[in-house]
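Hi F.,

I've been meaning to write this up properly since the lab meeting, where we talked about keeping a consistent format for the predictions we share between groups. The idea is simple: the sequence comes first, exactly as it goes in, then the structure tokens exactly as they come out, then a line or two of notes. No screenshots and no reformatting. I'm using this chain as the first example so we have something concrete to point to.
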Amino acid sequence: MSTPKGPFRLVTVNTAPERAKRLIGRVADTLKEQYTIIHVDNCEKIEEVEPKVKELLPDVLFSASMWTDDEARQIHETARSIKPDIKLHAIPTGLQVERGPDAIVEYLCEKVPPLLDS
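Output, unedited:
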């Protein structure tokens, strides 16, 4: 058996930090054979992204489904301006509301491996 890749330090940008922590915990648990994912922090506001990324220098940043495309782009540009090699992913707007938390976990379990392997 091979050793999981990582650890990957992950910051989420989500107005519901407890939900973010729970969902990322489920994703990390599902993918633990392949990757070690550590959820280091969450930003509840877009303004928190710059100081958190500067302080924590995460490997990965996810913006949650409550942000519009423009807001997600702003979040990602901010993170990339501080850490150019950060891996970024925007969960599609409205996915949580339309399909619920299980859909988010399923979606991320599909999207995270190609992102972390890139």
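Notes:
Residues 54 and 106 are 30 Å apart (CA to CA).
The chain has a mean pLDDT of 96.

If this format works for you, I'll send the rest the same way.

G.
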